[in-house]
Request: fold
Amino acid sequence: MPCRIVVLPAALTMCAGLAFAQLPTDSQLAGDIAGIKAIDNHAHPVLPAVGNATDTEYDALPVESLDPYTEPVRTRAGSPLVIEAWRELFGYAYNDFAPEHVRELRHRKKQRMDEKGEHYAEWVLDQLGIETMFANRIAMGRGIEPPRFLWVPFEDALMYPLNNRSVAAANTDRKSFFGLEERLLKRYLAECGYSSAPASLDEYLQKVVTPTLERHKRGGAVAVKFEAAYLRSLAFDDTPRSEAARIYAGAGNQPIAPASYKKLQDYILRYIAAECGRLGLAVHFHVDAGGGGYFDVGGANPLLLEPLFNDPKLRGANFAMLHGGWPFTREVAALLSKPNVYADFSSQTFMNYPRAVSQVIREWLEYAPDKVLYATDAYPFSEEMSWEEAGWVANSTGRQALALALTEMMHDGEITRQRAGELARMVLRDNARKLYKLK
Reply:
């Protein structure tokens, strides 16, 4: 068959080229987004420095304790984003990290802390335009309290009631992390009146696990957090109760084979998820390439959670995939078809640039706009970039990315300007209000 040559009009070929150009953000939409008071689905705020106390409970598994590893460019020491944050938050007047300038900044920052006292963390939220921040912390405290801060405690420690020597031996990061989890489990056991784990699985579940979750609920928790991807794969199989009980009873105080221990962990996590459904606590998972040179990125693939999400026994629980599963963001979009599954884009917003994050947000909004949650993952990475600076970077990037995504959707005729405003409010606050039944 002979070839047919089609000559396109010049105007049409020009439009085809422009299709690949980057659109500027709609300024009116960006202004509207900047003015919306947000609900932050995930962060690690630090207690205000009242007195000389040092806060160490902003994370169950602090990443700054890990061996050195390659940081993303935007979060490395000397990032110009830190200077932007200092300028906006504390009036930093310089464009460098000269020691005398940084000393001046630290003095000014301390002055602001002293001036605000217990209200310093609330002042930070005001600067970021955040109405409510979900505080992922071991415990709350003075200055990190409702209604501006809502609690999300950590429950991974409950999955590891046996001797953890075999699973901790994988690498130095795991050794450090399991030491921290064992210390937290001792705290939970003591709060339930135990000095060590009970002899039977039934007693452990009924006298330690459930009371711990109920105590967290009474303490104001709106969700619970699992950092499991730092400790193991996210593949949680459906272990029969009888097999889990046999493994628990037969272990004693000796190291247990990792494969057998995994079956017990799988059962305990599913038990916790079911209890959270009963108590009205959402279940949050770290689903993202995490910190540390030993982090198992493949083991954090959100598709590994699909059997958990599909379990009819767990349809009473709501799940949130934190950090949007980067680099598995399309997998996250597909999982949003589950009726009780949500996702936020925290962490991406300080690791990645606004244009890249906007493409992720756009895909999610085109698929399940009522499942997308705003979050910062504000975290005290270092003295240079503490939770305030990280929060500023993530908040600024997140709002820019949302504005870019909605601008492109309007340009392509997918949504009207009015719908863009509705979607912005859904992402920044309304979806969270509905999910957590916030007043």
Remarks:
- Residues 233 and 298 are 8 Å apart (CA to CA).
- The two ends are 68 Å apart (CA to CA).
